[in-house]
Amino acid sequence: MGSFLDKPKTEKTNHKGQGNNLSYGLSAMQGWRIEMEDAHCSLIGLPRPGLEQWSFFAVFDGHAGATVSKYSSDELIKSILDTDPTLFDEISAFATASNSSNNAINNNTRPLSPTPNEKNSDNDNSTTNKLISNSTNSLNKSDSNNSETPTSTLKSSSQINLNKEAAGIDLTTTTNSIKTSNSNSSLSTNKSTSANSNNTPLISEDLQNKLKTAIRQGFLNLDAKIRSRAEFERGEDKSGSTAVACLISPTHVYLINCGDSRAITVSDNQIVLNTLDHKPINPVERERIHAAGGSVMIQRVNGSLAVSRALGDYEYKSVEGKGPCEQLVSPEPEIYIHERTEKDEFVVLACDGIWDVMTNEDLKDFVHARLKVTDDLVQISNEVLDTCLNKGSRDNMSVIIVSFPGAPKVVQAEVEKDIACNEKLENRVKELIDSNNQGRVEFSQVLQTISQEKWDDFPPGAGFHAKQTLIEEIYNRLSPPRVIYENF
Ligand code: MN
Question: What separation in Å is there between the alpha carbon of 351 and the centre of ligand 1?
Answer without folding.
Answer: 6
